Target: Thiamine-monophosphate kinase
Amino acid sequence: MAGDDPGATLAESGEFAVIDRLVAGRRQPPGVSLGPGDDAAVVAAADGRVAVCTDMLIQDRHFRLDWSTPYDVGRKAIAQNAADIEAMGGRCTAFVVGFGAPGDTATAQAVELADGMWHEADLVGAGIVGGDMVSAPQWVISVAALGDLEGRDPVRRGGAGRGDTVAVTGDLGRSEAGYTLWHNGIRGFEALRRRHLVPEPPYGQGRAAALAGATSMTDVSDGLLADLGHIAAASGLDVDLSWDGLHGDIDAVTDAAAAVGADPRQWVLGGGEDHALVATFPASPPPGWRPIGRVVGVGDGRVTVDGAAWAGTPGWQSY
Amino acid sequence: MAGDDPGATLAESGEFAVIDRLVAGRRQPPGVSLGPGDDAAVVAAADGRVAVCTDMLIQDRHFRLDWSTPYDVGRKAIAQNAADIEAMGGRCTAFVVGFGAPGDTATAQAVELADGMWHEADLVGAGIVGGDMVSAPQWVISVAALGDLEGRDPVRRGGAGRGDTVAVTGDLGRSEAGYTLWHNGIRGFEALRRRHLVPEPPYGQGRAAALAGATSMTDVSDGLLADLGHIAAASGLDVDLSWDGLHGDIDAVTDAAAAVGADPRQWVLGGGEDHALVATFPASPPPGWRPIGRVVGVGDGRVTVDGAAWAGTPGWQSY
Model:
């Protein structure tokens, strides 16, 4: 069939042949009782509930095809949705994917995108169970993720308690460092540049935090100060971080920051897209989490560092 | 806050203020235990499974803002996803929505889009439980729908049996008629032109078909011949329709077809986007369904009308 021609475009292959290519040979996890190919898929929701979230990525806004391979883009699209399920204390079970692209896109690129998505879905143990392909002026990728809370309450943003330890798992500032290196055309620091293209959320740690009694949690997608600000505001409290707790992250990006004349602390406090998890714990955080501060006072959601407001930006907003 | 200024743009309002506007005052159905505002929502999945599907709409490809109001676009985006859940025999429980638009889009337009989405979601009894807003060069809307199969097997495309009655509920050819009228700048036939902008899927009839023992079902999104072709091919059988069964649909678009010099039969056989449901029944179809043909022979998925192949096109493909 036309979809088998690796040199063909999406328009030449045709929608149905391309979808056949994207779907062929994938292995669904046991919870998927009906995968792609019908009007809808059917996925287990063992505790009688399902967690659901969605994220959209626009070419040249959230990724650049001259920086990222389609494989990288696929991994990133799945990872950032998976991180949102982790941040509720859940385990991802399935993804559905909408993909818009120009008709002259090489079919092989769409296959590579799907391969990257499956790579990341396999890491979290979930299946890609359905999707939609449409013609669009640029690449658009929209993912919705489903998750299993395994009978537990979701870990929300508003549950932090005064005196709780604020802890983080996963890296901070790496993606922002990588972005700035790419943006300035600096070719060194391969690991940081790579991290900007493919985040590495700490899979499994959301569930671990929930089991350890986390009172609030979110993923660091916009920036540590911005995202912790959501927790603080929703909880009606303030948060005070310590430079001591952040020095490992700062050290990891200090050389790169020097190379571009940036402040490594800004990257760690305001850089998003690493999809680390940040949570609050009345007791000790579980293994793999590092304390970075404490919930203080009764407030309106201020986040300080060693008692002082940060003069830089807290994170990213769309538009 | 800036989001309260009806004359503001998305960029002026800012992402979080706009989201506050879109979310404020919405009433979630009882199955939604956690709505928007956290990293993910939580929705009931009473029988321990969830049906899930997704559809993406691109401005100027799937809708035009000089034909449709944002409210219409919102209704259509929800309706076409709801129809996919209906087509499995399910009941919609929740939607998540990704929305991309230029920063200079009026915030009031985004609110109108959300109002249209909620109008349609209320019709099906489901909630819009989460979303993502991003900056994009044109409007992009991606919806994922969740559904409850209420303990029943999903009604798939591949279960048709020889001798089954083929029946349809909902209208055929109206959306294609309306599209052609819009495209040719003809101002009459208001109901048909309106139908192209906002489809009216026969909500509840997917569940009714499942309860009546439907052996296969799909929604007519690409065209009756194309979509029935999927059922026939998946079932390893052929389908023969009868002009007799289709005359009501043909009559309904005959005047409009005459006005643009089109063949009304092509609209009924090949027109998509009405999101009618077509299904096969070993016994009589339930009330509200009309027989249009029969499953015949053992074949490779041919769909004929009174024994003859249709010389026109079977329906639409992307690209």
